[in-house]
Amino acid sequence: MLIEETAEAGALSRLSSKLSQFLSELKSVRSRQFLLSLAQLCYSDTSLAYETWVTLFPRLWACLSDHQRQALSGEVSPFMCSGAHVTQIDSHPSPVGAFLEGALLCKPQPPVRSCVLQYLSKTHNYWHGGALLLEDRAQPQLGKPNEAKQPPSYDGNYSDQLLDPFRQETLDSLSDVYASLNEEDLWAGLWTLRCQFPQTVTAIAFESQGLFEQAQQSYESAIKQAKDLHDTAAAPPSVISEYEVWEANWCRCAQELGQWETLSDFGRSQNGANPFLVLENAWRIQDWIAMKEASTQAEPICSEAYSSKLNLLRGFLALCYPDEQRLSAVEKLIEAASIQSIKQWRRFPKIVARAHVPLLQLSQQIMELQEAHTVHNGLQMGGLTRQNFHTDVKTIFKTWKNRLPTCSDDLSHWSDIFCWRQLHYKHLVKAYENSPNTEQNNHAMVVVHHSATAIIEYAKIARKQHLHSVCLDSLSKIHSIPSVPVLDCFQKIRQQVKCYIQMSGVMETSELQDALEVIESTNLKYFTKEMIAEFMALKGNFLAHIGRSEDANRSFSAAVQLHDSLVKAWALWGDYLDQLFTSDRNLTLAVSALTCFLHACRNQGEGKSRKYLARIIWMLTFDDEKSTLAETVEKYYIGISPVLWLPWIPQLLTCLVRKEGGHILNLLCGVGKAYPQAVYFPIRTLYLTLKMEQREKHKADQQSKASTPTATTAGESSSQHGVGGGEGGGQAEPMDTTLSTGNGAQGVKIHSGPDLSLAKQLNQVQLLQAKITAITSQLQLKTGPAPNATPTTQPHDPATGVPASSSSSVSTPSTQASGGGGGGGESIPIRAPASLWRCSRIMHLLRDLHPTLLSALEGIVDQMVWFRENWYEELLRQLNEGLIMCQAAAFASRADVANAQIPPEMFQFVKRLVSTFGIGLEQSGSGSSGTGGGGGGGPMSHESLAKRAQAAAQDPAFQRLKAQFASDFDFSAPGAKRLHTLMAKLKRWIKILELKTKSLQKSFLLEDRCRFLSNFSLATADMDIPGEYLMPKTMPYYVRIARFMPRVEIVQRHHSTVRRLYIQGDNGKIYPYLVVNDTQVSRCRSEERVLQLLAMINLYLNKNKETSRRYLQFAVPRLVAVAPQMRLVEDNTSNISLTDIFKQYCGSANQEWDSPMVQYYERLALLQSQGESITPETLQTLFSQIQTSHAPQTLLREWGEKSYATSTDFWTFRMQVRVICGLYL
């Protein structure tokens, strides 16, 4: 023992000595050694150096004394603006930007002027950081959006503005940064708030909408008013910036309108000499002498940012100036412009946005210069006699022909491109004409065709942007081309007539007459029949717009007679007849319009035929008792590609259940033959919904009959003769998973679980189909075939196997359907309606034509049973729905908060919750029971409900919760019927269940529960991504399912717990889908139709210039309903809702997320108890107080700054929020 104690004492002594030695060595360690090591690491890692400086510098600044900080503050701005940092301009991240960011984090902050921030933002790639800082500084100086603008009056005294020279500096700097970033909307909003002339607001609004003619007139009006106002003395300093805006934007409007001569004259004016403006516009009017002089003047004063543009224009001059053509210098200028443009690209933010568009446009011009140089170089080398030259020229011209503008592009840019191409077209045509070789005429005609096509394309895009004067001016230039081909002449006339049609609403009577004379005087002698027919149709459209209806009808008729397969003529005639039907509601006009639309949809793409199909479906709602319109559709729909009907399948299914459904049946069958998956899930959901509605209706009828002895006897008699009542008299199996028949036929059930392989499941599906055929044969012997159907093609109920005809039976358990029944449990026959039979017939047809695909689809749906909510999650979702209903009721009864009572529907809702606690809530009104599930004929099978009830009965914790739940929601207690008391109880139980759900597993493996999905591959079935067909597409390409990813996540979405399933497409992309259980069928279908509407609106937004260039698009997920109360909804894992952001803030602030609502009703009740009147001003004050204490205005910005590491990322996030708010608000 003594030896052991001695050993321990020695070990402790050695440990103490080592510690003492270590502490002694620490005395010799200095911060210098640590800092040198850190500096070495910073040299090897740029991001570490950036983070170290931004973190370290504010702490060092805090260690300084006030005198030291004051002395250093004056040196911060000169240091950052020093020319020594010019060599670091191309460094990323910017060293000067890092220094500035560290300096701005200091407390107190060293002063930095706004002009310095502007310089650093543009020069040292601190764009978005500088813009955010300038915005914070400019906020107090801006006025209100709606305050009246009045021009400043002259009083001869501007001393207050001269004494404060920096008053407008921040706003001018911010405006310049916005303009450099090409943030036109932010720039427009800034000037709308700071301008002093009302014409400025009007002009900016017109310009933002692309109405450049009106904007130019407003700028000219403002300039005239300012000239009259300040004619006697100089203008005040505060409006100088506004005058500069007028000049710059007037020039932009002139560029968009193609007023090149006006701009060139303005640039050479004595008072406003601008060599850059002359340089950019002189080459368009081929004034090469003026361009050469302007180039000489602009070169010494050119900034580095404009150098690439200057070299490009000098390349234009060197290539096209006939007196001094220098082809050797063009290559050097192209190389210099390319290098400089790449450098400028690196100095812009890393995320490509609107700021990069001018550089992309410049790059295209450099490419066009390079290609034109190739053409001229080949001509100088005797290219007309070389075959390779003609091949190269054709390749270049073909590239130019395919490189066309989009609707969202700036017209001024494409004016440069087409004007540049015209120069070389003319040069090449002149070279061919001067050639003695007569074979060159063919090549010359090709060039002439390209030249005319370029003019027409430019006019077309100008017309689409509603710049009609530019369109007509461009089309008039085609007459300067000799020997224009007939096709190009027709295209020119076509665009001209379309332009007149668009202008018909704003043209004067004399102008309309002149336009009609131009159309009437067109010589049609050299046109083909198809061209003449289209011209007559366009003429009829113009006549219809000016009110000459009879002449328009004759013109349309003549067009169709000339060429009866011209879809454009049919479409225009259909539009004309549709307008007449809209105002007259004459069914004969509707039949004619339908005929025209159906002919117009042939041989057209989905985009062209979309609006015509929409009008067809809309017109069917006006059908008469004889189904005249439906018969017309059935007669003429043949020949329309099935792919055109895919976006309208929900509307076709709505027609299927109406009186015209018999005529739509064949149409849906045709679409289903070509695209079975697109039709099967919607028709299956509709079938199950109709069947449940029929079951509930029959159940209600049986209950009403059971109230009298006569009705009871009739019910028993019906039960004895039911289809499902065999000799055994056993209880009917659940209809969603088991097929049962009379006469002792055994049921066949498809099991799903981890122990069942894919091959076994497919074998069971084949066995199931064989049993269906056998059952059908037996039942047809008893009941006979359905009306209008042959025994060989009669469809069957896909869930029960019973023939789905108008005389067939849908079995329901007798214990639910009849009043008597004893112990036999025999089922009662229910006569199926015609709509149910039509759905069943389509499904039967799809099963016969595509057995493998539909068996796989049913297998997937059957596996959805493993994606149901457990009873905790289901009850939590139902409580949240109840709370939302209570909140709506509370807001409706806010006039008397203290005495607000529970609505009757909430009583019923809570009572059903108590009676079905942990088992499942039967929804009334939707005709369904259960809470959504997979497989078979119902959203939740009786077997699953029984298993859940049995498992819950054996759980002691469940029994305690159930008793407590029933006790809490006992309305016999005093005050229990108050609405806000019920809301408090719901919130308490929601918290309890949220804690329970958070403790459950967050994911599971697909292989453990869904073997069929785990083994699915492209070899199993050729199946598309869910919801892929219902999204309108310009290209018919659909993504196939390659496999289901192995892990399924359990996530919270919209007050419910859902399963997130990942699907890998054959393109390699992973698509997350939420398996959503819904309780209200009508709400689900309404949401699907709203999403369909948003998808259609996106197509329109993409065609409009101003919305397309701003990337305005609604986020529309793929969605498909696999059962009446279960849907697969595409998810985006990177999305977060504003509610989630607010909940995160409430968690950090240690407050309940619904505390603002609670406080609102508490204060409102207090005011009402005191007898005060509730006015809008009172509510506004109340809202401001609650917002200040619970939801500050900076909440979203603070979250974004914490979530995004850099100012560029935060700026991009803010831009996305701005776009979304612009769409929805």
TrEMBL record:
An annotated Gene Ontology molecular function: protein kinase activity
Segments forming domain FAT: 116-689
Gly residues bias spans: 722-731, 927-939
Domain of life according to the entry: Eukaryota
Domain PI3K/PI4K catalytic span(s) in chain numbering: 1045-1225
Compositionally skewed regions (Polar residues) per UniProt: 703-714
InterPro entries referenced in this protein's UniProt entry, alphabetically: DDR_Repair_Kinase, Kinase-like_dom_sf, PI3/4_kinase_cat_dom, PIK-rel_kinase_FAT, PIK_FAT, TPR-like_helical_dom_sf, Tra1_ring
Region annotation Disordered: where it falls in the sequence: 698-748, 783-827, 924-946
Ranges annotated as biased composition (Low complexity): 798-817
GO cellular component, one term: nucleus
Any one Gene Ontology BP term: regulation of DNA-templated transcription
UniProt similarity note: Belongs to the PI3/PI4-kinase family. TRA1 subfamily.
PANTHER family linked: ATAXIA TELANGIECTASIA MUTATED ATM -RELATED, TRANSFORMATION_TRANSCRIPTION DOMAIN-ASSOCIATED PROTEIN
Protein known as: Transformation/transcription domain-associated protein
